[in-house]
From TrEMBL:
<feature type="coiled-coil region">
    <location>
        <begin position="5"/>
        <end position="60"/>
    </location>
</feature>
<protein>
    <submittedName>
        <fullName>GOLI4 protein</fullName>
    </submittedName>
</protein>
<dbReference type="GO" id="GO:0000139">
    <property type="term" value="C:Golgi membrane"/>
</dbReference>
<dbReference type="InterPro" id="IPR042336">
    <property type="entry name" value="GOLIM4"/>
</dbReference>
<keyword id="KW-0175">Coiled coil</keyword>
<feature type="coiled-coil region">
    <location>
        <begin position="90"/>
        <end position="117"/>
    </location>
</feature>
Length: 192
């Protein structure tokens, strides 16, 4: 009975130790499971946030796509309008070009006519120029004679001017002597 009792007690102790071990394992697993739950909760929140951002990005992209399509359509319409305006302007410029070309032909005919008149006028002017040059040479000869005479007169006038200037200097010297004499006389007490 004692042996059986000891044997049963040994089994109970083994069972308690095993239960304690299992309890510790269960606590460790519970802690790990808690960590896993928290991690899963964080992942779900992050996933929810990513879904929200993805939805917003998708909406923004759709808005951008619509705006880009509208801008493209507007640009296409503007390009068509510009093409129409340029086409119309091209027609106007082509007509103007034809008019200018016709005017150029008329001007070329006028130019040839004027060139002939210019040649005739140049010959006439050349004859007149030769005549005027001869008259000018004659006038130059007369003017040279006049200049020679005037130079001679200028020499005589310079000489006369120098004489007058010399007389003026003499007169100024006499005036200075008179002034000094007058001052000397005024300083004498008997004459005062």
């Amino acid at each position: 009975g004692v042996f059986l009792y000891n044997h049963l007690q040994q089994k109970v102790r083994n069972a308690e130790a095993l239960a304690q071990k299992y309890k510790q394992q269960q606590e460790a697993l519970s802690a790990q499971l808690q960590v896993v739950y928290e991690h899963r909760s964080r992942l779900e929140r992050s996933l929810q946030k990513e879904r929200g951002e993805h939805k917003k990005t998708k909406e923004d992209f759709l808005v951008y796509k619509l705006e880009a399509q509208e801008a493209l359509n507007k640009e296409k319409q503007d390009s068509m309008n510009r093409y129409g305006a340029l086409s119309s302007q091209h027609k106007i410029l082509k007509n103007q070009h034809d008019d200018v070309k016709k005017q150029l032909l008329d001007l070329q005919l006028q130019h040839n006519s004027l060139k002939l008149e210019h040649r005739k006028s140049l010959e006439s002017h050349s004859q007149k120029f030769t005549q005027l040059q001869q008259e000018r040479d004659s006038e130059v000869t007369n003017l040279q004679d006049t200049v020679f005479k005037l130079r001679e007169e200028s020499k005589l006038l310079r000489k006369a001017h120098q004489e007058v200037h010399s007389q003026l200097l003499n007169a100024q010297a006499q005036m200075e002597e008179f002034r000094q004499l007058k001052e000397a006389l005024q300083k004498m007490p008997g004459l005062r």
